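W.,

You were right to be curious about this one. When I first looked at the sequence I had no strong expectations either way, so I just let the prediction run and decided to look at it fresh. Below is the sequence, 186 residues in total, followed by the output.
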Amino acid sequence: MVGLPEETWEGLDRTIAKVIQLSPHFVRIHPTLVIKDTEMERMYRRGDYTPLTLEQTITMCKDLSRRLIRAGIPVARIGLQAIPEMEKSGSVVAGPFHPALGELVASAMAYDRMKELLARQRSQGKKMVIWVPERALSRFIGQHRQNLRRLRDRYGHQEISILPDKTLEAGELRYRESPGTRTVTL
């Protein structure tokens, strides 16, 4: 769980190192939520606990996921499965509850991957095309096309396209900009 009371990056770092040492078959990452009528709610109301924001949670989950994946440990789930009780008004008092948290984390990781690809290039063209594995297209585009907008803002390009490519394996990207067609596959 991320965002537990009094948790620090250092403590979380030690915890994930221990998890990796255990070499589990898979891991689930859950955010800490403040649920109505619990001790956590009382702590929150007294000001003794401040839950993570959604952005902080995405950043932490992204970091943990990368470390687990590098260690060969699959992440089976990020976030809590939405159950009817949680969706009732007022049931979740505070905290980073989002029904698609795992997808938000995967999309943030995809954005970082594209940013890394483009940082290696001297992006001078007016038009960029990034091809991604077909099954991962929605993650690379981002929820509400967020990744596409962020890339355009960051690199100032008038036109950036993210397109599917059936031939690319997971983790591979292909890039081209024009004028001067230059294709790079990573």
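Here's what jumped out at me. DSSP finds seven helices and eight strands in the chain. And, maybe more interesting for your project: Strands lie at 27-29, 34-35, 75-78, 92-94, 127-133, 159-165, 174-178, 182-185.

Coffee later to discuss?

I.
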